[in-house]
Amino acid sequence: MRLLYLSYLTLVLSAFTIPLRAESPEILFDRDIRPILADKCYFCHGPDKEHQEGDLRLDLEPDARAVIKAGAPNESELITRILATDDSQMPPKEAKKELSADEISRLKQWVEQGASWSQHWSFSAPTKTATQAVTTHEVIDELISKQLPHGVLAAEASKEKLLRRVTYDLTGMPPTIDELDAFLADRSPGAYATVVDRLLASPGYGQRMGLAWLDAARYGDTSVYHADGPRDMWGWRDAVVDAYNKNMPFDQFSIAQLAGDLLPEADQTQKILAGFNRNNGTTDEGGAFAEEYRVEYAVDRVKTTSTVWMGMTMECAQCHDHKYDPISQEEYYKFFAFFNVSSDGGMQTRRGNAAPTMDVPDPVKQKELPAVESLLAASKTRSKEISDNCGPTLEKWIMNRKLQETEAIPLPKGCLLHLPFSEGKGKKVKGELRLDKPASDDSPSKPQITADIKGKVEWIADRNDSTLKFNGSNWVDAGSIADFERTDSFSYGGWVKPAKNGSQGAFIAKMDDGNNYRGFDLYAGESPVSVHLIHTWPDNAVKVTTKKKLESDKWQHVFAVYDGTSKASGIKIYVNGEEWEWNIEQDRLKDTIKTPKTLLIGSRHPGSRLKAQVDDIRIYDRALDLQEVQRLADADPIAELLAIADAERTDAQTETIKTYYLTTENEEYPELIKNQKEFQSKIVELKKPLTTVMVMGNQAKPRKTFILNRGAYDSPTDKEVSAGTIAALPAMKDDAPKNRLGMAQWLFSAEHPLTSRVTINRYWQMLFGRGLVSTPEDFGVQGDFPSHPELLDWLAVDFRQHGWDVKRILKEIVLSRTYRQSSVSTVDAYLTDPENRQLSRGSRFRLQGEFIRDTALTLSGLLNEKIGGAGVRPYQPPGLWAEVGLSGNPRFTQDHGDKLYRRSIYTYWKRSAPPPSMQIFDAPTREKCIIRRARTNTPLQALVTLNDTQFIEASRHMAERLMREGGKTTKERLRYGFRLATSRYPTPTEIEVLQRIFVAASKKYSDTPEAAQELLAVGEAKRDESLPLNEHAAWTIVSSSLLNLDETLTRE
Amino acid sequence: MNPIQEYELQMTRRQLLHRGRGCLGAAALSTLLAGSPQANGAPGPRSSANPGLAELPHFPGTAKRVIYLFLAGGPSHIDMFDYKPAMEKLHGTELPDSIRNGQRLTGMSSGQKTFPCVSPMFKFKQYGERGTWVNSELLPHTASIVDEMTIVRTMNTEAVNHDPAMTYINTGTQQLGRPSMGSWLSYGLGSENENLPAYVTMISRGAKAGQALFSRLWGSGFLPSKHQGVQFRSGEDPVLYLNNPNGIDPETRRQMLDGIAELNATRFNDVGDPEIQTRIAQYEMAYRMQTSVPDLMDLSSESEDTYKLYGDDSKKPGTFAANCIIARRLAERGVPFVQLFHRGWDQHGNLPKELTTNCKSVDQPAVALVKDLKQRGMLEDTVVIFGGEFGRTIYSQGKLTETSHGRDHHGRCFSTWVAGGGFKQGFDYGKTDDYSYNIVEDPVHINDFNATILHTLGIDHERFTVKHQGLDAKLTGVESPRVVKEILA
């Protein structure tokens, strides 16, 4: 067995290497020699200054020339040392870097042939080689054919297989029967191009491209380290899908990904796309060192950025000069400096998004906004009209009013919570609570709440009846109410009589001191009045404090009104119905203020206790206006104003009287004002974000960057560096900003040799299963030499010259004859070139896990085509999260209904325990950037598609389709099913095999109808009860078999 | 990865035998598969499904397989193995700065004003010919076999928090995205067994669920996912998706698979892609796993003596004890790397009570495993490892009372024991100071330890590399760790 294996290996080895060499006996330095030098010599004779032995560098031509005599291997020390058998032998034995006989002979040949030298291929700018062909797709064929043994491409794939291939490659889905029929019927020369255009314009295109981008961006729905708690980055994911669908040019797309936050006049999309480098894992581990992780995040961002856009393994230079590529440790830290000034912290939350974040508006609500805004404007115009024309009647009214008693105005309506403090005894406080919005104040029975007094109970008869005294060690817990978000408008306050020398304390608060003071409060005492709205104090919070102080030992009505804008300017503080001026202490609120803590009177959780008497607290879930607050403060809003002589009143005072008059006397005006309030709150509601997304942000005062000794966060050297790029690559423009934006733009400069090559190579990999460079993550000296260097360069230039137009370049590639070749070939051909490096046939490879699941959903007709939104949790075996979660949490809760059938790009991605049916098919955990997935073939994969509830449920629904749509006879239905799964018609033999499966299963389920019942109950989707049980079960077995065919699982 | 290696990995025996354009019927296939090597215990040739690398082993090793008992959370080396009578005098005294020596403390105890040392609140005795100290209350069984094992008292790691430390010891680096030890071995050595994965993990818990685990700890990183650890679980579905769905009996499944194999073979004839034959073989292996895994997990054939040996817990599926029996059964079937994760060893507080619970659930089964392997003649080529990601501090975290205290994380030294597979028997290695805080002699970095494990398997850790992003990635990192030959027999 072992022997057979070994001899076989030799066969593969020679089969693999000989054709390459036979075609090109000439030694190419870049392809044949540098990889040997890099692999075997650079460790000691390369760019790393700390490991340069004998002052010899074999990565530099002049140095190397000193040990090479062109044309004379025996006189070249390079060769003689390699051939030496004594102590002078290179590489030294202890280095364990032995050269193979083939490598030695290549080196000798190279010296014999004159030892030509060139710069590493990927560091010089690509150029277009001269070609006979003109269009891009013809150039591809020309340059591919040129390297084929006979210069001829294979025959074209059948129309069915071609449609299936291109549909998967561009949308991740199989073609429908209608699409197949339409394509087969279209005999025009442009039929295929029409299909390609249709696919590129379909929403599936963005999802397919987005999915590949998510691996690169290490996208997930959780935070990775330690608790691996939830976060919301799906707004970013949706923006990526949308950008692909809108064919945003790749340079613009990339610049937004890397620096959307820094773009002057960035639009909403650009700002959201700047979440790319916030997808990295973050920690919340109690014992972690924040600085260690902050540095780790920057390291990860350098690595991801350099991998995705440059195919460079920069991370090697974090600890020492790169051993193979021209990147010094200093240059690494120059690049690192772009990310070292990010404002997000080393410790981040395990619950939700960490600052900086930005709101993602709800597109549906956004559409309603203009209509409401215009209604508001019209209503305002009308009320202004009334106001402007009321002069004469107003004067008359003022005359009369001075002679009358004041009438009682009703209290403002819609109170959410009212605590009157009228009990006068006991440990409980009763309150009225409005549970839902429509309930009116007039409803006969209002729900009551009972709040507990904690600590000492001290009732004092005062004001109207009784009041409660707070002495700094007692408070009232009103429970889980008033759970306001920063985007809600609300008003709250009441009567307070501050104790003498009672400093500031929490009058009303729903705030968690232990979680960076998240929540809101009203802060009072014998002191100024403050309002806090806090996500995390002090960096993500609003605080205003009045200039005047409350008086001690005197009842005062204190009320705060907030309009939901997240700004200090949205807060008003009224004392006795008069608006007090305030100073802003913080005005940087960007994230949620919601906290699970309860609402307290007289305290926060757990500190800042109040020393004062308190009475009659009210909370409204809207912003009250001045008059409403005045009414609550028992203030007659205009008595004082009327007392002023007409001539001495200020304009503002006159305006107040006028408003009061219109509100109380005009027939139309109060309705208008009421409407305006409703419109305004509707607008606030419509402006509420759908979600938030974490985005990159730079510090206001950027931190300095020092080279870290051996990359250790706690060993900075005293060598400071400024942000910059690598000397081996073209320089940044002098006037470019030296920040992420400048760096992102630099990647897309015309001279940059890597960006376009690396990107084209990834597209090639996506469409052929393997890149022209088989190491898409490494274009450096240790990476793979391109199989078709001229083609890679030609396409790279073409892509840039056509404005980085992604859809165009993909279209050109799939239009090529190379792409359209049939994958039907010989076993020998497959064994000789298993990876299809020479592209002498169409590529054939297993679909990725997401596509396999999406195929089952499509063929069953269960697929829910909804685009975007928060991640969903389809079926998965129980217990997987709890088995690994911190203290067994969180638990997985499966979704139901149509959320079970979303495309797999929308599956919730928990990074410490990713969806198993995807992971088994080589999906990465997404903890780190991956741009090339492994593609294995394992028994566990068979178990998924044979047994997973998702696939069985899909099989029984596919069975329903076969029975409903497939025709009357068994054969017709088998043909239909086979065609659904593979896109082609089955042969008679294939029908025969399928029929055997059907007949056997039919018999089984006729004999055991209870088994049929069980099978058809797998999964939550309802079965069509009109179909006969045993027949339905038998077709389910057929469908499941079809879903498990190699041909169904393979894109070919 | 090197394309040749990659291709080699994809090869199966069937591809080798059927390089021609012959049709491969299901019947022929089952004949072929019937001859698969899967004998109990006897080391057979490697499975064609996972043959490993041709150049491995580099030299004849002393071990063929590893069973790693991983106590997640940071077991207290001070309270289990690294005891010194002098400690009693230190009880309640402040940890001197000269000992702490500027050591960084985790965020959980860095705010403490005092650092009072705690001598273990347990009894210790000297055991074995060498008179080594072991906690006689908590680890009576372990104490009884100290002459079987090497105790390394000077394990050390730079990491002091769970997530990085567990990632480090399991993958050789704190960076994410690297293959775990078991994946490396699956990739390099392959497996003898056609019907079971080369790397199996199981999870159980002690005093509490405790610290998080991550699938990356048994993940395959940049290696193909077929090398990732397959988690076996107690209950009806011991491997994810193993069971046929309700309503599909084995006969129906067999008929389906025969049909699928036939259709796939037809396709292979038309297309020529050998990967189709691999797929046929994988479906067959899946079918065989449906029988072989439940057989493996079904402990009903185990004798009463075995249950007695492993303790009462061993009859309860999902316990550490039951998992230990399964680990032995896996070893018998030629599975080269089995890792049992036992959770709940993070005693920041309430240490005496929780440690008692934890030790009770692992002491007897772990020892039983060693004895059981020995009586079956398998201990000499099986390495059994018992340890966690770091140790704990001599000083109390939180309040020190007469009966309780906690300890914070400590990476500068901790203890791991190892038995069988060519390790010395009855040997202690490494010395720590009186405070079990610093290493005085013979440090063993976690990567030294991993390099030593590889050595026993016949692998030169420096030559066992995979090209990844331009580098020769190794399980043992970049710092050139050493094989600790002193602890090898």
Largest interface: A-B, 120 and 100 residues
Tally of individual helices of chain A: 38
Which oligomerization state do the chains in this entry correspond to? heterodimer
Strand content of chain B: 15-25%
Helix count of chain B?
A: 15
What characteristic shape of chain B results from the CA principal axes?
Answer: globular
**Could you estimate the helical fraction of the residues of chain B in percent?**
25-40%
User: What gyration radius of chain A follows from the Cα positions, in whole Å?
Assistant: 36 Å
Strand content of chain A: 5-15%
Calculate the terminal CA-CA distance of chain B, rounded to whole Å.
Answer: 35 Å
Kindly name the structural category of chain B: alpha/beta
Total number of beta strands of chain B: 17
Distance between the termini of chain A: 32 Å
Mean pLDDT of chain A: 90
Q: Which regions of chain B have little confidence, pLDDT < 50, spanning 5+ residues?
A: 1-44
Structural class of chain A: alpha+beta
Q: Please tally the β strands of chain A and state the result.
A: 23
Rg of chain B over CA atoms, rounded to whole Å, is 24 Å
For the biggest sheet of chain B, the summary is: 9 strands, mixed
Quick structural overview:
The complex is a heterodimer of chains A (1052) and B (489). Chain A has 1052 residues and is of the alpha+beta class.
Task: From the structure above, extract its key features.
heterodimer; A: 1052 residues; alpha+beta; 17-stranded antiparallel β-sheet; two-stranded antiparallel ribbon; globular; disordered N terminus; B: 489 residues; alpha/beta; 9-stranded mixed β-sheet; 15 helices; 17 strands; 33% helix
Outline the fold blueprint.
The complex is a heterodimer of chains A (1052) and B (489).
Chain A: H1 2-23, H2 29-40, H3 42-45, H4 61-65, H5 77-83, H6 101-112, H7 136-147, H8 159-171, H9 177-185, H10 191-201, H11 203-216, H12 234-245, H13 250-259, H14 268-273, H15 290-310, H16 329-340, E1 357-361, H17 363-388, H18 391-402, E2 415-419, E3 428-433, E4 448-454, E5 459-461, E6 466-471, E7 475-479, E8 490-498, E9 505-512, E10 518-524, E11 528-536, E12 540-549, E13 556-562, E14 571-575, E15 578-580, E16 582-587, E17 599-601, E18 611-620, H19 626-632, H20 639-643, H21 651-665, H22 669-686, E19 689-694, E20 705-708, E21 716-721, H23 740-747, H24 755-768, H25 789-801, H26 806-815, H27 817-820, H28 827-832, E22 845-846, H29 849-860, H30 880-884, H31 916-919, H32 939-947, H33 949-965, H34 970-982, H35 988-1007, H36 1009-1015, H37 1029-1043, H38 1046-1049, E23 1050-1051
Antiparallel strand pairs in A: 1-19, 2-3, 2-18, 3-4, 4-7, 5-6, 6-18, 7-17, 8-13, 8-18, 9-10, 9-17, 10-11, 11-12, 12-16, 13-14, 14-15, 20-21, 22-23
Chain B: H1 3-10, H2 13-17, H3 26-34, E1 65-72, H4 77-80, H5 87-90, H6 97-100, E2 124-127, E3 132-135, H7 140-144, E4 149-156, H8 162-171, H9 181-189, E5 199-205, E6 230-231, H10 250-271, H11 275-297, H12 304-310, H13 320-332, E7 337-343, H14 351-375, E8 382-387, E9 391-397, E10 406-410, E11 414-419, E12 427-429, E13 431-432, E14 439-441, E15 444-445, H15 446-456, E16 465-468, E17 471-474
Parallel strand pairs in B: 1-7, 1-8, 4-12, 4-15, 5-6, 5-7
Antiparallel strand pairs in B: 2-3, 4-11, 8-11, 9-10, 13-14, 16-17
Helix pairs in contact in B: 10-11, 13-14
